[in-house]
């Protein structure tokens, strides 16, 4: 619940081939709180993660660059 993985669907979408699908772990630049029930989305080359639950509800927001694993804490306005 505190790890970060990426799945490249290019081959599946281009050829319909399921055989080459591989989950790749992305090592993050800093440790994040392990969580479940969060929301995440990919936009403009970054993955944004909001909230979730650990021992209590989380109300944090951060982005992850999937190329280099850099974690950037963000503040919502």
Tell me what you see in this structure.
This protein is mainly β and about 80 residues long. It has one helix and six strands, in the order βαβββββ. It has a four-stranded antiparallel sheet, with no helix packed on it. The protein is elongated.
What does the secondary structure layout of this molecule look like, with pairings?
Layout: E1 5-7, H1 10-15, E2 23-25, E3 39-43, E4 46-53, E5 57-64, E6 71-74
Antiparallel strand pairs: 1-2, 3-4, 4-5, 5-6
Structural class by secondary-structure content: mainly beta
Helix count equals 1
Report strand %: 35-45%
Rg of Cα set: 14 Å
Q: If you average the pLDDT, what whole number results?
A: 92
- SS elements, strand count: 6
Q: What kind of sheet is the major sheet?
A: 4 strands, antiparallel
- The helix-strand sequence is EHEEEEE
What is the first-to-last residue Cα distance?
A: 27 Å
Low-confidence stretches: none
How much helical structure, as a percent, in the residues? under 10%
How would the global form be characterised? elongated
Strand order of the largest sheet: 3-4-5-6
Keywords:
77 residues; two-stranded antiparallel sheet; mainly beta
Briefly, what is this?
The chain is mostly beta strands. It contains one helix and six strands; from the N terminus they run βαβββββ. The mean pLDDT is 92.
């Amino acid at each position: 619940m505190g790890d970060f993985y990426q799945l490249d669907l290019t081959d599946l979408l281009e050829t319909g081939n399921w055989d080459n699908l591989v989950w790749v772990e992305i090592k993050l630049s800093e440790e994040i709180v392990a969580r479940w029930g969060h929301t995440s989305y990919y936009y403009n080359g970054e993955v944004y993660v909001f909230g979730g639950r650990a021992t209590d509800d989380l109300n944090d927001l951060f982005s992850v660059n999937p190329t280099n694993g850099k974690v950037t804490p963000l503040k919502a306005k």
